[in-house]
Design brief:
There is one protein chain. Helix content is 22%, strand content 25%. 36% of the residues are buried. The protein has a single domain (2-211), classed as Alpha-Beta Barrel (TIM Barrel), CATH 3.20.20. The radius of gyration is 17 Å and the shape is globular. By secondary structure, it is α/β, with parallel strands linked by helices. Helix 1 (52-60) packs across helix 2. It contains 5 helices and 11 strands.
Amino acid sequence: MSLNLCEIFHSIQGESSFAGLPCVFVRLSGCNLNCSWCDTVYAKTESKKVSIQKIVKRVKEFGCSLVEITGGEPLMQGKSADLISLLIREGFQVLVETNGSISINNIPGECIKIIDIKCPLSGESDKNFFGNLDLITEKDEIKFVIAGREDYDFAKDIIHTKLMDNGFSIIPYKNIHLSPVFGKINPNKLAEWILQDRLKARLSMQIHKIIWDPDKRGV
């Protein structure tokens, strides 16, 4: 079995509750969305067929136990679930980051799902598949990418109406991330909004863009 692969690299996890940890990234090719702020447009077209076994072998060479399957949109390729399953069997902790437009129902339960709920300024908020919220567990994570106030208000509404049940979050609120688009909105403004509204969510910076040049690949 093979997958359309864009790149594999070893870096510091820049987002999610795993931020700051060494991680191997397996970036699969192709995406079904066109987000206005996308920073991995190249993943749509840069592709080579690589067997799942070769991908796992390459991952092992880095000697790192944390792996993220990302894209593009990794769930466009049905066999990505087979890659995740094999990595889990080999003893890796596996994260998958998805744009939230495709069901996560075939992803192994041991895998931590990081679901990006698209906000209006992405241009793709009509593509959200909210059925995924019925499939997540307490270990999974939700991310909102925020480019302006409209996005923040949208995220706040989703948190209150879809991620809360009788006043309690359906996942720990430390796993709900609001991430400012690098260079589009000042993080201190987003921090002010979160504090003013007592919003139960985490301000998440893309720390890899702080450590390295924000346009640098493979980090």
